[in-house]
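hey so u asked for the seq, here:
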Amino acid sequence: MATIDVNSIVTQLMTIERQPLQKYDVKNIGIQHRISAFGTIKSALATFQGTAQKLANADNFNTVTATSSSNEFVGISASKTASNSNFSVEVSQLAQNQKLASSAFAAPTTVVGTGTINLTFGKYTTTGTVPSTVTSFTANPDKTAKSITIDASNNTLTGVRDAINKASAGVTASIVNDGTGYKLAIVSNDTGESNALKITTTDTGDSNNTDAAGLSMLAFDASTGGTMNLAQTQVAQNANFKIDGIAISKSSNSVSDAIDGVTLTLNKVTTSAVSMSVGKSTGAITKNVQDFVKAYNDLAKTLDDLGSFDPVTKQGGMLSGDGTVREMQNTLRKAMTQTISGTGGDFKSLTQVGVSFDKNGQMTLDSSKLSAALSKDSQGVISLFSSNSRASDSLIKIDSVDKKTQTINGLAISVISNASQATYTSEALSFAGAGGTFNVSGSNNTFGIDINGTSASITLTAGDYTPAQLAAELQTRINSDSALQTAGAKVGVTIGADNKILMTNAKYGSAATLSVTGSLLGSATSISVAGTDVVVKAGATTATGVGQQVTLDNGLKFSVLGGAASSPDGADRGTINYSRGMGYQLDTLLSDMLSSKGQVASRVDGLNQQAKNIASQVTRLNSRLVDIEKRYRTQYTALDVSVSQMQNTSTWLSTQLANLPKMS
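ran it, C-alpha cells below
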C-alpha cells in the first residue's frame, strides 16, 4: 500500500527554504576576502613605514669610512662629525704607564706596617745639565689624590694589596713571586707622563716616613731629595707621533683629540709613514632612499591592484570602489609632494634631491642628483628627510627638542650676555729664590672653600712650589676632597704672570658659586666674582638660561658656548632651524593609518561587524528553519496518516462491495 514519502518531500522543501543561507555564505566570503585584502595593505604600509623610519633617523645619513694603510702600526676609526681628509702618521714612541715594585717579602702574610699611603698623580720633570740636574714633581690637576688607611686589619702584604685595589685610586696592585720573595707591584692604570705616581706615607709603626722599614717601604718620590723605596720597572711616558709632519705628544695610545671626529690607535713604532683616509660615504644613504622608493611603489601598486576597476573588461580589484582605499591613496600622494619647512637650506621637496614621479605615477630616484645635493648641503638633505636641527653659528649647540617642539623656520638668535663662571682671585704671591718658588708650610697650608654650597677644609702638602706646581697642587687637593667629589663640585686653578691665584668654578651660571674662607696662602685681599647665566633673544622673546643652556617654551634646548654678545639688543648670532622631515612626517602618518583607530583598523572593524551581523542572521534563519522543518514534518506526517486511513477505508469498501450478493 503506497504512502506519502514525507522525508523526501520535507528534504526538497527545506532545500528551497535554505536558499537564503547560500546568499549569506557568498556575502561572508566576500567580506573575508576584503578583510584579507586590507591585511595585504597593512603589510605594505608597515614595510613602507620601516623605510620611512630609516630616513627619519639622521644618524643613517652620516656614514663615514676610515682606512689605514697598515692597521698593524696605526688603526683608525671615525665618527659622523669627521670631515673628508687624507693624512699620514709616523709614531716614534708609544705611551706607557708607570710600574713600581717593592723589595721582596718572605710571604704574602708578612706584616708591612700601619699608617696612611698617599697617592698623587703627576709629572716628573728634570732640568739642568749633568751633574747639576734637578727633578721636580708637578701634580696632575685633572687627577684626584687618594689616601689609603692601613691598620691592624689589613697590614699584611696581601692586606695592603687589597686595600689599594678597593680604594679605586687609579692604580692596580698585585703580588709577584720572582723567585727571591714576594714583591708588591703597583701599576698606574692610565698611560702618559702626567700619570706618574708620587707615593708618600705616614708611618705610624716606627714614626719614620722615609726609611726602608714599615709602611714607608712603599714610598716613592723621584723628585730631587725624594724617597724612592720602590723600584721603577717602567717609566710613565707619552706617545710621540707626527701627523703630516706636525709633532704631537699624547698621554694615550688611543688619540681622539688630534683630528676632529677621528680616533687613532697607535699600535707600534713605525718604520715609515702610515697613510690614512677619511671620507663620507653616500652608498648607505642612497640605498635607504632606494628602499624608500621601492617600498612606496610596492604600496602604490598594492592599492591600485586592489582598488582599481577596468571599464573595458568590467573587472575590478577586491576593494574596487572602496572609499578607504581612495582616501589612503590621496593622503599618501599629498604627503609625498608636500613642502618641508625648517630645513635651513634650499632643499624643501623630494624633487629637489632627485626623488620624483614619472608619467605613470611611479616614484623614481635620480642617484646623481641625490649625490650632488649631499655634496652641496648634506645637512639640508638630512633636514628634508629627518627630524634635524641646525644652528648657523658654530658656538650655538642644539641640545635637545621634545614632543611639543614643532617646525622652527629661521628663528633669529642674538646674545645679550654670555654665561660666566664664578671666580676667586688672590693678591699676588711672592715667588722667591733662584727657581722662583713659593713655600707652603704648616703656617699657611690650610684654608676653607665653598663650591656650589658644599664646604670643605683643604690642606696643601708642605714644600716649595713653582707657579705651575702650586696651581696644580691647589687644584688637585681641592678636587680630591671627598665631600666636593660627592657633590660634583670642581675648580680649575691657574697662576698667571701677575703671580695671582685664579680659581674658576667648573660650572657656569648664577647657581654655581665659589668662595674661600680664611687666608689663602697668606693672601690678605681677594676678589670674588659671581657666575652669571646666559641671556638671549630668540625671535622677539628675551630668555635667561641656566648656565649656558637656554630652554624655550616650545621645548627647544640650546647652549651658547661663547662668542659675540652685546647689551641691550644682543649680538646677531644667526638662526636656528628645526624640521620635522619627510621621513618623520610619513612615519607619523603611517602610524596613524596603522593604529587601532586608524583607517585600516576602522575599515576591518566595519567588515568584521558585517560578518557578525551575517552570522547573527544565519543563526536566526537556522533557528527558524528548524521550526519550519518541524512544521512540514508534522503536516506531511498527518497527511500521510490521513492518506493511509483513506486507503484503508477504500480497501474496506472495495472488499465490502466485492462481497455484496450479485444480482442474477
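The radius of gyration is 44 Å. The chain has a mean pLDDT of 91.
lmk if thats what u needed
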